[in-house]
UniProtKB/TrEMBL annotation:
Species, as recorded: Neobacillus ginsengisoli
UniProt cross-references to Gene3D superfamilies, sorted A to Z: 1.20.1260.10
InterPro entries cross-referenced by the UniProt entry: DUF3231, Ferritin-like
Name of the protein: DUF3231 family protein
One Pfam family named in its UniProt record: DUF3231
Amino acid sequence: MDTIKPIKIGSKKMNPTEKLTAAEMGKLWATFMGNSMSKQILIYFLQHVEDEDIKKLLENALSLVHDFMNTIEGIFEKESFPIPVGFTENDVNLGAPRLFEDEFYVHYLKYAAKAGLSIYNIAIPLVYREDVRNFFIHCMNSTIVLTEQIKEVLMNKGFIIKPPYIPIPEKVKFVKEDFLNGFLGHVRTLHGLEVTHLYDNIENNVTSKALILGFSQVARMEKVRELFMRGKDMTHRAVEQYMYKLHNANLPSPPFLDHLVTTSTISPFSDKLMLFHKVDMFSMKIRAFGNSMAVNGRHDLGFMYTRALMNISLFVEDGAKIMINNGWMEQPPLAVDRDRLASK
């Protein structure tokens, strides 16, 4: 059924000399960097995977990575835009022992797919050049297909529980003054959107914790290792808080995944890659908390997310400083510094 009727305003075709906007340039750059990292991680995962279904997921994900990177390189070359260094075979040790069990790979892929969808979801309304717009629509559609395959494997293999069930309302109601209460007086039970984001934050953070637990075992630099340990403890405390909110409402939550990390202490990745990855993952948490706070109604949940947001922002800043001090952070495309030009 055609719900949206076509609008024919004109026959304007893409100008082959049309410049990239800041949004197009920035999102293409970020997508290339993320997929450059994912490429090395997926190649390593494929070295050890045994389950055939999970192997197929990893191969499909890697195929998308190659597809996305090749398309971006083509656009950049056409614009004489320097190809980012990103991450190379120098950032992965394919001879390193297994660091994660097969099941973790599926949880990781779901987390990575969510991160990709958040980039593409923001990009699509902001990009106008035809080739860039079509590229991000392709990224979104392809990642949705991969996400459905991931969910199918997670459910069929019993690796995950669905978000909790709540009863269907008997009738339409309007809230009263105590709706926002969280600390004092009558505190209502969680509403559906609050349950959704608590579940999502738990799902994201148990994956993030297992990954940073593995990274903390193998990191070579002391500062990087200490930051990972700090991130692990911070993530664990946060997950316990989210779980408590659900359990206090007699609702189930996804379990920790720490048992899916092996005892290996030999690093499969460079400290540069691992630190970039964790800074990127923690940055995604900031976006997730923003979404959680936007639909939240209880004061206690709002305070919990605000405090977590502050802690994560400090972690991201400290991680960025280590990357900068070691010459690991590539600079994204910048606007013109007019003041500097005027002073010359």
